[in-house]
Amino acid sequence: MCSSWKKLPPLLRWLLPAAIALLIVWVYVGFALNSMGLLALPVEYWLQYNTTFAIMLVCLGRTMAAHVTLDVAKHVQGDGSIELKYSGEKRFCRKCNVPKPDRTHHCSACGSCIAKMDHHCVVCVFFTSMCVGLALLVFCGMHLVLSMCNLTTLEYCEKRGTIGFVNYYNVGVLSNLHQVFGNWLVACLPIYPSHMTALRQQFPVNVKKFD
What we know:
two-stranded antiparallel sheet
C-alpha cells in the first residue's frame, strides 16, 4: 500500500485524507449542529458528545505517524536495543541515515522511518471499516428488531405511534423470524424461501390480539 501511494502525484495523495476529513465534518455538522439532533437534547449531552469527539481526534492524531528523528535516534546508540541484525549489528536505515529503534521500519510513502509502522492502517483500514461497520450494524439491528416484531418499515414509522394500534401479525418472536428466514436449516443459504409465495397473499395472525 505504501509503495503504491508513493507512485501517485502529490495532489492525489491528499484525496483519501481529504475524503475522511470531509466525512468527519459532515457527520459532526449533520448531528451536532442539527436543530433536530444534538441541539435538541440537554446541554450535558452536548458536552459529553463533544468531549468524546475531541478525545477521538486527539487519539487519531497521536497515532498517525511516529517519525524517527535524529533526537530519537540518539537513544538507541547504547546497548539497549533488542532487535539486531543477523550479524549482531544495530539496525540502521540507509535512506534516512539514522539508527533504527526497535519496532521501526522505513515507510516509502512517508519517506521516513516510522515507529510501530501501522499508521496507514489506522486511518485507511480501521476508520473506514469502523464507519461502514457502524452503519451496517445499526441497519441490521433495526431490521432484526422489525423481523422479531413482525413489522414492516412503513408500519413501524407510521402506525406504531397511532393510538390503539395493535400488531395483529405478531405471532411470537420465533414464529416471526421463521416467516422471514424460513426453515432454520436453510435460513443462512442464499435461496428463496419456499413459503414466501404464500405469505405474499395471506399472513398468519395472532387471534389473541382480537380479544
